[in-house]
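Issue 218. Parser rejects a valid record. Input:
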Amino acid sequence: MTRYCNRECQLAHRPQHKKECKKRAAELRDEQLFNQPPKMEPCPICCIDLPTMQTGRKYQTCCGKYICAGCSFAPVKDHRGNILDNLCPFCRVPEAKTEKEMVNNIKKRMEDFDDRIAIFNHGVYHSKGQYGFPQDFVKALEFWHRSAKLGHAESYHNIGNAYLNGRGVKRDMKKAEYYWEQAAIGDIFSRFNLGMKEQQVGNMERAKKHYMIAVKCGEIDALANLQHLYLSGCATSEEYSDAERLYKEYVDEIKSDQRDVAAAATDEMAYYTPY
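Output the parser choked on:
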């Protein structure tokens, strides 16, 4: 990247290397974009990595913790082994029994702790018109922008989708892609969207990079797309084998007997898709 002495220097000399500067800026952006995002934090109870599949974890509105499906499904017991009903598995306070209590907990997390997940959820309620809130896409975007500034990647994903569909904003594909790129640094669903976009325009190498990152984070649809690219001759057998290995490693890292019990009891607690 070029440094200029001052504004006059920039105006006088930038045309000489404008092309090189743009190329280098794109390279730096790709370095950031194609970094493997960090894994999800572990469940605070069993200490096994949380799954990326949303049904495999539950947000506790009382304490703001994500609990895995296994620990959420298991009975809460006291020191004598007695089962305690309707208590949070982590903080042991009574869980919300009604929608009103749940919304009040979310509001408290927002106001007292600036909880980015609570803020994001509040935006979802406005976007869907849930829990007594009128459907308001503009209001939803306000909450998602606020949550995104606090580092919540899924908020960027939803902002991108708003620009894709023209909900609360004018439809703008460039802005949709920009927010998906912001989200992709920590959100695998946005990573998958970017892979799809690159595949649709024929940028197969970039598409495969996005898919491989997503597979390593547990995105089964990315693995299916890599299989399709392999069968159509756009990916090598080695690339597809690597993708299968990465998905198996991901599943091995998040598996537990307790989570299997929960998933067997109800599809609403499934935490990975067999492949």
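Fixed in the parser; the record now loads. The mean pLDDT is 91.
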